[in-house]
Automatic annotation (TrEMBL):
GO molecular function terms listed in the Swiss-Prot or TrEMBL record: chitin binding; chitinase activity
Entry protein name: GH18 domain-containing protein
InterPro entries: Chitinase_II/V-like_cat (IPR011583), Chitinase_insertion_sf (IPR029070), GH (IPR017853), Glyco_hydro18_cat (IPR001223), Glyco_hydro_18_chit_AS (IPR001579), Glycosyl_Hydrlase_18 (IPR050314)
Family per record: Belongs to the glycosyl hydrolase 18 family.
Signal peptide feature range: 1-24
Source lineage: Eukaryota, Metazoa, Ecdysozoa, Arthropoda, Hexapoda
Record keywords, A-Z: Glycosidase, Hydrolase, Membrane, Signal, Transmembrane, Transmembrane helix
GO biological-process terms attached to the record: carbohydrate metabolic process; chitin catabolic process
Recorded GO CC terms: extracellular region
Source domain of life: Eukaryota
Spans through the membrane: 457-475
Source organism per UniProt: Anopheles minimus
């Protein structure tokens, strides 16, 4: 029973196998959440980077989030930010209904609408949340909007309470807004989630974590943008660990300490890298850089490069780039130098994704979230990555079945589901296999006057008893 309490839901995982030929496991092979944000403006990108909703693969996600809708301040209601893309009116493309319509063939899929985002700002949401009458009007109107277009719920992306023109009272008012939405949404069997900033300062000032956790179904933790060109030096976008507070492990552990249940935390993964320009030759992490990074050819945002842009560039011009793995950050560093100037991209490879999934499994989190599917290699144009599970099974106590490198479309998304199973198997084995004694006690040493060897022998016997009991529990689980 102890093992079952420590590893919820993992008994059934032991009966499952990975899909072969590098195709990746689909979400029904495990019990974790895989939440996929779709930045719908990606359809306007050029060439092969253009991402229509037809490119979305529902088999790789449990939840899909349509990003973004906005706030109509006059009506206290949700509004479309791109009517031609979102709606069917005036011969529009009907994106809302196209995404929700995918549930007909994929009934496992939950489809949510996200309201907010960086460009929507913070001030208008601060003003809404501060006014009880406006909040109540919004709650009713939001329910009507979600039901009208057939969504399974609403995702709040207020970036960020108390910041960017917000007020200190936002922290309390955000809880009030979430509570009132939750009360109505739960009566209508609808989901309510929120994107949560991952920086310590943002968490501490913006969120009453324990209160929000009562009303939200999931908290999507945006574990990226810890560093960027704005710092004036080269830094990891989404480090797993670091010497400061700016890392994935600290963010998740801090939220847990503040009262967020692991069963509601969804770890965010970036399908993009941060770019830097440095006047130093062969620049590395920590070196000085310009305040503005270079853009990707399709996303065209300074300091940003989608994973698909990175891996296609590496495939086209492999000799131009040097790849280095940073073991502390668990991120890949790509460096291009002409002798006096360096271009650097710090991004998440399949190895990075697998290591973060492993962390999420060990923390018993609800699952993983991605921003965003449209910058994965959704066309399947990039080279295989052979080192995805290089950091697994490093204790010499497990025998893992490692899947082949993922090939074809969506290598990062496929890695998530494969890594959930590999990481769960690894953790199960570590909890089942007993520690071996350092050495076999010599004959007759149990009578040693010091008692030291006697204690060692007793520990070995106890380990064997625990192993027999644990093995019995494992059989019952299966």
């Amino acid at each position: 029973m102890l093992l079952m309490n420590r590893l919820p839901g993992l008994g059934c995982l032991m009966l499952l196998s990975l899909v072969g030929s590098g195709s990746g496991a689909i979400v029904t092979d495990h019990d974790r959440v895989v939440t996929c944000y779709i930045s719908t403006w990606a359809v306007y990108r050029t060439g092969s980077a253009s991402y229509p909703l037809d490119s979305f693969d529902p088999t790789l996600c449990t939840h899909a989030i349509y990003a973004f809708a906005g706030l109509d301040e006059e009506k206290n209601a949700i509004k479309s930010l791109d009517a031609w893309q979102d709606l069917k009116d005036n011969y529009g493309k009907g994106g809302f209904e196209k995404l929700t319509g995918m549930r007909a063939k994929h009934p496992h899929l939950k489809v949510l609408l996200a309201i907010g985002g960086w460009n929507e700002g913070s001030e208008k949401y601060s003003n809404l949340a501060a006014n009880p009458e406006r909040r109540q009007a919004f709650v009713k109107n939001a329910l009507d909007f979600i039901k009208q277009y057939g969504f399974d719920g609403l995702d709040l992306d207020w970036e960020y309470p108390t910041q960017r023109g917000g007020k200190p009272a936002d922290r309390e008012n955000f809880v009030a807004l979430v509570r009132e939405l939750s009360q109505l949404f739960r009566k209508n069997n609808l989901l309510l989630t929120s994107a949560i900033g991952a920086g310590k300062d943002t968490i501490d000032s913006a969120y009453d974590v324990k209160a929000l956790s009562k009303y939200l179904d999931f908290l999507h933790i945006m574990c990226y943008d810890y560093n960027g060109s704005w710092d004036g030096k080269i830094g990891p976008n989404a480090p797993l660990t670091s010497r400061d507070f700016l890392n994935v492990e600290y963010s998740i552990e801090h939220l847990l300490e503040l009262g967020a249940p692991a069963s509601k935390l969804v770890l965010g993964l970036p399908f993009y890298g941060r770019t830097f320009v440095s006047t130093m030759a062969k620049a590395r992490l920590g070196d000085t850089a310009d305040k503005v990074g270079f853009p990707g050819p399709a996303t065209k945002e300074n300091g940003f490069m989608g994973y698909n842009e990175v891996c296609e560039e590496l495939k086209r011009n492999p000799s131009d780039w040097t790849l280095e793995w940073d073991s502390t950050a668990s991120e890949m560093v790509a460096i291009k130098s002409n002798g006096s100037v360096s271009q650097v991209v710090v991004y998440d490879s399949t190895r990075s994704i697998a290591n973060k999934v492993r962390f999420a499994i060990r923390q018993k989190l609800a699952g993983l979230m991605v921003w965003s599917v449209d910058t994965d290699d959704f066309n399947g144009l990039c080279a295989l990555e052979e080192d995805t599970y290089k950091d697994f099974g490093d204790r010499g106590r497990v025998a893992l079945s490692i899947p082949p490198p993922v090939s074809g479309k969506y290598p990062l998304l496929k890695t998530i589901s494969n890594a959930v199973i590999v990481a769960s198997d690894e953790l199960t084995q570590e909890n089942v296999i007993p520690h071996e004694p350092d050495e076999v006690p010599p004959a007759g040493s149990a009578t040693d006057a010091s008692g030291a060897t006697l204690v060692s022998a007793s520990s070995w016997i106890l380990a064997m008893v625990l192993f027999i009991g644990t093995a019995t529990v494992t059989v019952r689980m299966l």
